């Protein structure tokens, strides 16, 4: 008889990106019709050469690159992020209010571990980032879905109606994964006021902040002197500096919460990768202009996506921004079946909306997420042509 499984973990759905990759098994792609992979939001190109050189030099010449470091991260990286965030957001962030993690997913898990346990509730707007939902399921925390309104924007008043005595946090992602929506500053402020009023945590995951189409600060939440009492900010270095394999993320929160986060991180990973942190610090100090160029290229791809789908028969764009477009499709097949058929019939890999929505949710069977950041304008044109051809066949 097999050993028993943790019921909460066993009930958690499998990793969606890994499931989608298995759809490629046995499918042949040719030189004249290669796979167009718009399934995962991760840079496929390496970091710029100057950053790779800095990583190599640290690996060769800095003994600390290969040792344990502080659980909450390198002091210089914490200080640099605090400095840049204070300038960018017009508030005050101190180094002691920053923790470095093994990627932003770990930042989310560590944060939730300080807030909620079995039987507690967390409000999560839909469509949601599936790893957030997976962690809540594993931890026995009940996810309370918050359906979006126009533009895939959540409504604070509807969130307020869902707050109970078991609610511990509201989680927002902006720019949004999977929907692409950029939440207006006044919307984030309304959610912050709601969280403050009800003594909840507002968690804002800004993994894609470097690719926001707006200029200036996306919100003013750090300008409130009381922000450490209710606001928790999450960030990833993976996208801006192409450091996905190095796993470097961050939490910005009050000191008392980070003392609890330290317990989690010490138990799970002891400390973040030293080499990855050194790379993130070098990037923050030296690559602002390069990141600005990356942002401009992503914005060009966003424009190309919007143009490509504007007259694509039967398709409708619900949201587009940062790395993502969230769309409805015209095929009669439910989105999981259609997504698998796209691999065979069009050489396209994208994820169905059912991976980002509650089971049986209205509309999910017609929704798809397109992660377009790794596809240039020519690739986006090819994607459009293949989808158009599929509709005609």
From TrEMBL:
InterPro entries: Aminotransferase_I/II_large, AspAT/PAT-like, PyrdxlP-dep_Trfase, PyrdxlP-dep_Trfase_major
Keyword Coiled coil on entry: no
SUPFAM superfamilies in alphabetical order: PLP-dependent transferases
Cofactor: pyridoxal 5'-phosphate
Membrane-spanning ranges: none
Enzyme class: transferase
Reactions catalysed: L-aspartate + 2-oxoglutarate = oxaloacetate + L-glutamate
CDD domains: AAT_like
Domain Aminotransferase class I/classII large, residue spans: 35-387
Any single Pfam family the record assigns to this protein: Aminotran_1_2
EC annotation from Swiss-Prot or TrEMBL: 2.6.1.1
Record key words, sorted: Aminotransferase, Pyridoxal phosphate, Transferase
PANTHER family, alphabetized: ASPARTATE AMINOTRANSFERASE
Alphabetized NCBIfam families for the sequence: PRK07550.1
Family of the protein in this entry: Belongs to the class-I pyridoxal-phosphate-dependent aminotransferase family.
Protein name (database record): aspartate transaminase
Organism from which the protein derives: Thioclava nitratireducens
């Amino acid at each position: 008889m097999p050993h028993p499984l943790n019921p909460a973990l066993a009930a958690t759905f499998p990793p969606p990106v890994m499931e989608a990759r298995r759809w490629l098994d046995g499918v042949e792609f040719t030189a004249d019709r290669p796979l167009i992979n718009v399934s995962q939001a991760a840079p496929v190109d390496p970091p710029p050469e100057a950053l790779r050189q800095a990583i190599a030099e640290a690996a060769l010449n800095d003994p600390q690159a290969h040792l344990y470091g502080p659980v909450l991260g390198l002091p210089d990286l914490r200080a640099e992020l605090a400095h840049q965030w204070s300038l960018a957001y017009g508030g005050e962030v101190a180094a002691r209010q920053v923790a470095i993690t093994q990627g932003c997913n770990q930042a989310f898990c560590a944060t939730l571990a300080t807030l909620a346990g079995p039987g507690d509730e967390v409000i999560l707007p839909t469509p949601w980032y599936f790893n957030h939902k997976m962690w809540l399921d594993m931890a026995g925390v009940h996810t309370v879905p918050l359906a979006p309104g126009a533009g895939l924007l959540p409504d604070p008043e509807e969130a307020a109606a869902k707050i109970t005595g078991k609610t511990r946090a509201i989680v927002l992602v902006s720019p949004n994964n999977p929907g692409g929506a950029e939440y207006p500053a006044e919307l984030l402020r309304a959610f912050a006021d709601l969280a403050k009023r009800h003594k909840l945590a507002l968690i804002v995951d800004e993994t894609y902040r470097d690719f926001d189409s707006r200029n200036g600060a996306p919100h003013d939440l750090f300008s409130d002197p009381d922000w450490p009492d209710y606001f928790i900010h999450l960030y990833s270095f993976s996208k801006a500096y192409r450091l996905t394999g190095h796993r470097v993320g961050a939490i910005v929160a009050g000191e008392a919460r980070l003392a609890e986060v330290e317990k989690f991180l010490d138990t799970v990973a002891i400390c973040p990768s030293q080499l990855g942190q050194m790379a993130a610090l070098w990037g923050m100090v030296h690559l602002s202009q390069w990141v600005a160029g990356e942002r401009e290229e992503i914005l060009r791809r966003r424009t190309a996506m919007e143009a490509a789908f504007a007259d694509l028969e039967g398709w409708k764009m619900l949201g587009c921004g940062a790395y993502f477009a969230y769309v409805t499709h015209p095929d009669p097949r439910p989105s999981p079946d259609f997504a698998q058929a796209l691999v065979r019939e069009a050489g396209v890999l994208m994820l169905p909306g059912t991976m980002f929505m509650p089971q049986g949710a209205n509309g999910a069977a017609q929704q798809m997420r397109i992660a377009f950041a790794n596809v240039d304008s020519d690739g986006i044109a090819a994607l459009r042509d293949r989808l158009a051809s599929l509709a005609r066949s």
